[in-house]
Amino acid sequence: MSLTAITPEQTTVLKTGGMVSSDEWFSIIAESLPKAWEIIKRLVTEAEGTKQPAIFSPPNLDDTTRGELLRMMASTSIRESLEILLRMKFGFQNCHKVGVFPPGHEKEYHEFTSIKSQLLNQSQELRDC
């Protein structure tokens, strides 16, 4: 289960046609995926400060962090809602390479998410990344 911080009360509300608030949703993400949340927050802070894309390219990660990043980036609802909240575009490549792109950096985003960049991100050393 990816999102462990959802309460039984929130589940009941959802099952009866209600919704959780945006604040509740982001709290669920932050509490359920704390290591991924910290990485994204750090990248967003860097991108806001420099007005340039920020890239996380780890040499290796522990299984918990790796799993959390995969869950966050692979879930359209999580990734897209974070992009809206944080006003940034996220890119993701194999081996848990994450890019955060502020507005105005569409070219860099498209380069980061291109087939060429994905293929160049591959190596024998990163085979089991």
What does it look like?
The model has no long low-confidence stretch (mean pLDDT 92). The longest helix has 17 residues, at 34-50. Helices cover 56% and strands 10% of the residues. Helix 2 packs across helix 3 (34-50) and helix 3 (34-50) crosses helix 4 (63-74). It has a three-stranded antiparallel sheet, sandwiched between helices. The protein folds into two domains: 1-32, no CATH class; 34-126, no CATH class. By secondary structure, the protein is mainly alpha-helical. The radius of gyration is 16 Å and the shape is globular.
Give the helix/strand layout.
Elements: H1 8-15, H2 22-32, H3 34-50, E1 54-56, H4 63-74, H5 76-86, E2 89-93, E3 97-101, H6 106-112, H7 115-120
Antiparallel strand pairs: 1-3, 2-3
